Amino acid sequence: xxxxxxxxxxxxxxxxxxxxxxxxxxxxxxxxxxxxxxxxxxxxxxxxxxxxxxxxxxxxxxxxxxxxxxxxxxxxxxxxxxxxxxxxxxxxxxxxxxxxxxxxxxxxxxxxxxxxxxxxxxxxxxxxxxxxxxxxxxxxxxxxxxxxxxxxxxxxxxxxxxxxxxxxxxxxxxxxxxxxxxxxxxxxxxxxxxxxxxxxxxxxxxxxxxxxxxxxxxxxxxxxxxxxxxxxxxxxxxxxxxxxxxxxxxxxxxxxxxxxxxxxxxxxxxxxxxxxxxxxxxxxxxxxxxxxxxxxxxx
Length: 299
Hints:
This protein has 299 residues and is α+β, with helices and mostly antiparallel strands. It has helices at residues 29-33, 128-137, 144-157, 176-184, 192-199, 203-214, 218-235, 240-246, 252-263, 267-272; strands at 21-23, 38-43, 49-54, 59-65, 69-73, 76-80, 84-88, 94-98, 103-109, 122-125, 166-168. The strands form two sheets. A six-stranded mixed beta sheet has the order 1-3-8-5-6-11, with helices on one face. It has a five-stranded antiparallel beta sheet with strand order 2-9-4-7-10, covered by helices on one side. Helix 8 (240-246) crosses helix 9. It is globular.
């Protein structure tokens, strides 16, 4: 049964990359028979790929190498890069995107057989051990005993990431036009005053609506959105100067400072350690943006 969600899962709000292929997802025979607790696989899209909104009968864990994965679930957008995965509960409608050439990995977990039950989407820490185990489980020559042993270790080591890479969407008719315009073009630099004038409402109304709906001010929400987009652009090999210009920053140093406020480190340092298990960010400055992208305590 497909789980209900607020609104439709519409991953296509960010401007599609040139050459993006839209794919439909149909339930597979493996999902129906599910001979094991975990079914793992790998594909490498040759072009930017977008999967239309769909749901699975099984829990799904997806992660990428050499790119990023973006998924929209009702009122949330998740962006995960190397070192992190995304858990999608069974029955939850979602859409997704993967950048061209990214190694797209997925693993399905059978409800009832897997002693893991995240009820909401979760960023998962893709440690080298977890990735190796899931790669091992994608083999077709494992006997039942070997598969059972490997699965039991997966259940022991699979943990939520200390970073939950989620951008909350407002879902408020008064400001949805702002959110959708910025999702389509994060470089849109219109000020709060300009948005208020264009929508015929007060700046105070916009500020309160963003804070109430997302927990962030308008400026903070736009900053987090731009960092989500930056993760994708940087993973595709664009340099910091180009990404800065693409996202509407006046100069690279401003972009780097913004990235640091949200992620706790610079773009270069973040991607240098992408293969490492994410560590908690210490000694953040008082002007850090407190939002769902930064480390989540007690996760």
